[in-house]
Design goal:
mainly beta; globular; disordered N terminus; five-stranded antiparallel beta sheet
Length: 203
């Protein structure tokens, strides 16, 4: 697609793709943070096809996913697509989390989703945090009842970023209060819009 004037020709998903590629080429994707240069985030949005804003969406052992009190064993379990690419996460403290910070548009709806399969954990929580205001957009929420140990479940939550919010921290697993245990995760996705679309892997 031809990209002309930023104010009229680039839709929000195009912008996310350009920013992610720009960060990758310049080596600016550090510690799970998508780096945004000043003046590059507009205040408008025109939605189009889904773009997965996470990186390393099946590689939770990668450094782009920041982990606290969680260890990851890679490619241990058959994933929903039939490949052995799902990962085993082992929690070692009640205060635990796995996260990847992402640049977003303010006042915009997003859908966060991932696939989960029960291990030995007896509770599982997700949350979404506004890194600008240092406040929760989505508070700690249990999704344990939506999972089981025999089939994969795709968990999703839709939320709207507040005014002035340009970076969020979504957690697939956070401070469940369970001091130890395992869970299997695969296929994280963050996309613009209020619908959960088919999963798009990103390396």
């Amino acid at each position: 697609r031809y990209i002309g004037d930023w104010s009229s020709d680039v839709c929000s998903s195009d912008l996310h793709v350009l920013l992610r590629e720009f960060n990758r080429v310049l080596g600016l994707h550090l510690e799970g943070h998508v780096v945004m240069l000043p003046g590059m985030m507009p205040s408008w949005s025109r939605g189009s096809a889904a773009v997965n804003l996470f990186t390393k969406t099946e590689q939770f052992d990668h450094g782009n996913w920041i982990k606290t009190a969680i260890t990851v064993a890679a490619n241990t379990t058959v994933a929903p697509d039939g490949a052995t690419t799902a990962e085993t996460l082992t929690v070692t403290s009640g205060l635990h989390n796995i996260r990847q910070d992402v640049a977003v548009l303010p006042s915009t709806q997003y859908t966060f989703s991932w696939h989960a399969l029960r291990g030995t954990m007896t509770d599982l929580h997700y949350a979404v945090f506004n890194m600008n205001a240092l406040s929760f957009i989505v508070p700690d929420t249990s999704y344990y009842a939506s999972t089981n140990s025999s089939t994969w479940s795709r968990i999703s939550v839709t939320f709207t970023t507040p005014v002035g919010c340009t970076t969020i921290r979504p957690w697939m697993l956070r401070d469940s209060g369970v001091a130890s245990g395992t869970v299997f995760l695969w296929g994280a996705q963050l996309e613009i819009g209020g619908a959960m679309n088919p999963y798009v892997p990103v390396g």
